[in-house]
Each structure stands twice: as structure tokens, then as C-alpha cells.
């Protein structure tokens, strides 16, 4: 009997493309790793879990949400610490090796060091990272490092104070700078900076931001702006592309592309700056998507599993979890959602629509 292509395989050998020990590949599909894990119907295996701890945020970035903010989830809607640890433990058992805590703003989660300590105690221990806006990091960095956090990415689009205040609608640049320094001092390295260049807003300062990061030993990553804003105002024509970022950086620095093997499954194309060893990364998530090598899956703060940032659906774990579902049932739901993962995000396709949830509710 042939395998049912709508049902996730119980083992990798049940995958419909699996033929013999080497796993032959069908047209347009990638080989399936001979292991039990979070495999999708194109042979990709998810090993990187993004966990949103809250949708709340203390900034109001113009490319993310309106000035008045958004209706936040109430605490009962969000997974508790015990629920997060249980669900993440299931993912780890399914082969997840990297865990990234996101939001909203994850530093707003009460008891965060204790939660990180519990996640770091899972076996086998996942690598623990966090993406944050940096507010509060100066106060929390030592405790987070002690609890077991391995490193941080801090979102910072400009080091011009007036531009920062205009972009985030908050005059908090000194706090972010202090948070970066505290993370570095606490050993949360490499400290990475995530930046989005916006036309007519901060794009003129991309080389200045790189110089600022180079002086402090931070690793800068530019990310193309994606259609994930709550206002649905994103326009591709207004986006600063990866090629434009590279061109602007090259006016001041010599950039040498590193081979793809240097990035692995990471989304950023890496460049040596002036011969190295420092690098800068550029994530061309719109103009050169990396969907074919995607190894990510997401858990929202309210307990939904999303197989892609731009997925049109998601599966609810919170309801079954609170109704007494056993681990086997939760795993079935997780693996089923991964099996439904599309070939790519579809930005630019005629039928593309932005996700109903904005980035702050999905998790970065």
C-alpha cells in the first residue's frame, strides 16, 4: 500500500520520497534525512524552534504596529511556564536543537531567568538564544547568562537618537546601547544586531551602523523588510533590497562574500568586511528567499504552532494541552502541522496575502 501523502510519516522511512537507505528524491523535493524528526513533505527537517513568550512590546516601531499599539493577549491566553517547558520538551524530543525566545518583547515576561533555566535543563540541551529590543537588557543580562542563555540578537535600526525615536516612537536609544554592552559583558556572545533599512528613513545610515557595530565587536545583520506589519502597509517597491544594502555598505568597506557553507541553514549571506575577521550579514528574505533550506518552526505565545512566518494556518496546542491531551496526541498535532508546510512563503505570488497575525503576535 502506498503512503498517504496527507498524513505525516511516523518515521522518516515512511516518507513517500524515501526509497532505500539513501532516500531518493522526487522531482522538486529534497532528500529526507534518515531519522525520526519534524520532517515536511519536501524533505526539510525542522531543528530550530522560535518560541514567542508574549505579544506585548514596549516600543511602537512604525514598520510593526500603530502608534496606539495593539490589543494584547491577556495572561490566561498565553502559555504558562509549565506549558512552555512541556511543549518545548516535545520539540526537543523530535530533534529541535536550537531554541530562540522571541516576542513581542521577551524581556517583558515575568520570571524569565527561571524559565530559561528550566529550558536549559532539557535533554539534550538546546542552544538558547533570544531576540530582543534591548530595553531592560542592562538589568537582566547577568541573570539571563547565569540562567543559561547562550546569546542575544538585539534589534537596532539606527544609532541616530532622533531617527531611533521617530522609528520606535520612544526615546530609548541609550537604554538599548546600555543593554548591548551589558549582554557583551555578561558573555552572551556573539552579540548580534538585527537591522531593517527603510527607504527615506534610515537607509542613508547603513554604513554608519556597520561602523558602530565594528567598533564594539557586535555582528550586524541587515534584514529585508517583510510584509508582517499590523497595518498591512508594506510595499515591495518601497523596500530596501539586500542588493541595495550591499551597494551602500560597499561605498565605505570592501565586502567579500563567504561561501554558502559558512552560513549553513542560517538565513544571512555573510561577507568579510575589509578582509575580516569581522563579518556583516544580509538576509534577503524577500528578494532571494531561503525557503528551500528552512529548518524553522514557531510556537506563538498563545500556544499555536506555525510552520512558517507566512503560513495561512496554524494548529492549536493550548486547547488540547489544557483539555488533558497526552504527549502522543500533541506530537501528532505538531508533526501534522510540519507536514503541511508549503514549498515557500509566496511573497510576490498573485495570491499572496499577509498573515492575519502581525509579527508581534507570531514571534520573530
Describe this entry's structure for a reader:
The chain has a 12-stranded mixed beta sheet with strand order 9-10-11-8-7-6-5-4-3-12-13-14. It is of the alpha/beta class. The termini are far apart. The protein has 10 helices and 14 strands. The protein has helices at 81-93, 112-120, 137-147, 161-168, 173-185, 206-216, 242-250, 318-322, 327-339, 359-362, and strands at residues 38-39, 45-46, 48-52, 98-102, 127-132, 151-155, 192-195, 219-223, 255-257, 269-273, 279-283, 296-299, 304-306, 315-316.
Give keywords.
364 residues, alpha/beta, 10 helices
Topology:
Blueprint: E1 38-39, E2 45-46, E3 48-52, H1 81-93, E4 98-102, H2 112-120, E5 127-132, H3 137-147, E6 151-155, H4 161-168, H5 173-185, E7 192-195, H6 206-216, E8 219-223, H7 242-250, E9 255-257, E10 269-273, E11 279-283, E12 296-299, E13 304-306, E14 315-316, H8 318-322, H9 327-339, H10 359-362
Parallel strand pairs: 3-4, 3-12, 4-5, 5-6, 6-7, 7-8, 8-11
Antiparallel strand pairs: 1-2, 9-10, 10-11, 12-13, 13-14
Amino acid at each position: 500500500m502506498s503512503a498517504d501523502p496527507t498524513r505525516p510519516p511516523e518515521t522518516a522511512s515512511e516518507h513517500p520520497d524515501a526509497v532505500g537507505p539513501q532516500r531518493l528524491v522526487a522531482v522538486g523535493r529534497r532528500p529526507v534525512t534518515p531519522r525520526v524528526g519534524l520532517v515536511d513533505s519536501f524533505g526539510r527537517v525542522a531543528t530550530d524552534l522560535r518560541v514567542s513568550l508574549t505579544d506585548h512590546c514596549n516600543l511602537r516601531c512604525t514598520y510593526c504596529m500603530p502608534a496606539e499599539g495593539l490589543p494584547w493577549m491577556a495572561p490566561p491566553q498565553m502559555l504558562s511556564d509549565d506549558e512552555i517547558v512541556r511543549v518545548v520538551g516535545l520539540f526537543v524530543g523530535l530533534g529541535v536543537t536550537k531554541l530562540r525566545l522571541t516576542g513581542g518583547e521577551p524581556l517583558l515576561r515575568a520570571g524569565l531567568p527561571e524559565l530559561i533555566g528550566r529550558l536549559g535543563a532539557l535533554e539534550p540541551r538546546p542552544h538558547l538564544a533570544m531576540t530582543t529590543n534591548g530595553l531592560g537588557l542592562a538589568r537582566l543580562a547577568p541573570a539571563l547568562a547565569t540562567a543559561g542563555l547562550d546569546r542575544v540578537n538585539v534589534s537596532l535600526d539606527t544609532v541616530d537618537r532622533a531617527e531611533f525615536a521617530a522609528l520606535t516612537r520612544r526615546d530609548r536609544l541609550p537604554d538599548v546601547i546600555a543593554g548591548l554592552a551589558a549582554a557583551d559583558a555578561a558573555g552572551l556572545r556573539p552579540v548580534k544586531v538585527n537591522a531593517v533599512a527603510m527607504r527615506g528613513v534610515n537607509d542613508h545610515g547603513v554604513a554608519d551602523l556597520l561602523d558602530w557595530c565594528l567598533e564594539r565587536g557586535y555582528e550586524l545583520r541587515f534584514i529585508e523588510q517583510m510584509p508582517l506589519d499590523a497595518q498591512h502597509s508594506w510595499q515591495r517597491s518601497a523596500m530596501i533590497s539586500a542588493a541595495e544594502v550591499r551597494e551602500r555598505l560597499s561605498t565605505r568597506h570592501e565586502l567579500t562574500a563567504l561561501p554558502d557553507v559558512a552560513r549553513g541553514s542560517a538565513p544571512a549571506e555573510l561577507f568579510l568586511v575589509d578582509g575580516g575577521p569581522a563579518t556583516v550579514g544580509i538576509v534577503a528574505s524577500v528578494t532571494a528567499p531561503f525557503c528551500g533550506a528552512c529548518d524553522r518552526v514557531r510556537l506563538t505565545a498563545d500556544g499555536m504552532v506555525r510552520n512558517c512566518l507566512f503560513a495561512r494556518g496554524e494548529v492549536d496546542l493550548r486547547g488540547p494541552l489544557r483539555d488533558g491531551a497526552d504527549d502522543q496526541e500533541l506530537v501528532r498535532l505538531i508533526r501534522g502541522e510540519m507536514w503541511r508546510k508549503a514549498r515557500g512563503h509566496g511573497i510576490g505570488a498573485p495570491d499572496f496575502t499577509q498573515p492575519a497575525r502581525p509579527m508581534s503576535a507570531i514571534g520573530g
